[in-house]
Amino acid sequence: MKIGVLGSGQLGRMLALSAYPLGHQMCFLASSEEDPSSLLGNTFIQNGSQEIIEEFAKN
Known about the structure:
This protein has helices at 10-19, 50-58; strands at residues 2-6, 25-30, 43-46. The protein is of the alpha/beta class. It has a single domain, classed as Rossmann fold, CATH 3.40.50. It is globular and about 30 Å long.
């Protein structure tokens, strides 16, 4: 299962650390590559326009 998270703070990091052993993929919409969970995601998308957020939600 692919799980998308809006934001990439500490709670997202803990979610990713719990999800990976269960075989899930993580994708974070973050404001910075230095956020706590942005390095843990299979995909990292930096915050942007409404179109970027809508595309994030579709995938």
